[in-house]
Design a protein that fits this description.
four-stranded antiparallel beta sheet, five-stranded antiparallel beta sheet, 4 helices
């Protein structure tokens, strides 16, 4: 395993749509392992392959519930909405409020090519949407309703200036 460099704001790779993965082999497994090591070293929640310079539809999320590896993920269901503060490893120091679904369902493949379904709500839904957006060249700043001054981020986190609306 190896640490990968994080692609930063302004790099054209963050604006391109990633290609489908066709080969489920040692190279994919190495990339997934490297992405996991990079994510954990940065203290992040999720990372997509374009963020490490690879234009493939691959993302990983590491929450308190464990590591989720997604190859060729597609969101096929959304429910409810929530308004959460988001940041990004590729946009250090930038924070903003984004409206996302409260619950999402994703179809993907695992590292071996086996089809999987992932269902997430609350913060997991935010992370899933955020990483799938990266695969389509969309950054959270493109859809943020309000950006937050970096000096006020901790205050916002403490005050939990978050409103959640659940529907059906």
């Amino acid at each position: 395993m190896a640490l990968r460099n994080i692609v930063a704001q302004g790099d054209i790779m963050l604006r391109r749509k990633a290609r489908e993965v066709e080969h489920f082999d040692d190279r994919l497994w190495t990339l997934l392992d490297d992405m996991c090591e990079t994510l954990r070293a940065q203290g992040g929640v999720g990372i997509a392959a374009p963020q490490v310079g690879i234009m493939k539809r691959i993302a990983i999320i590491d929450t308190d519930d464990g590591l989720i590896e997604l190859v060729n993920p597609v969101i096929f269901a959304k429910k409810g909405s929530q308004y959460q503060l988001e940041g990004c490893l590729s946009l250090p120091g930038m924070w903003g409020y984004v409206e996302r679904p409260f619950k999402v369902k994703i179809r993907a493949r695992n590292r071996y090519g086996k089809p999987i379904n992932i269902e997430g709500d609350d913060m997991l839904a935010v992370a899933l949407c955020h990483e799938v957006d990266h695969l389509d060249g969309v950054l959270f700043t493109d859809i943020a309703a309000e950006m937050v001054d970096p000096d006020q981020v901790e205050e916002h986190k403490e005050n939990r200036k978050i409103s959640r609306r659940k529907s059906g």
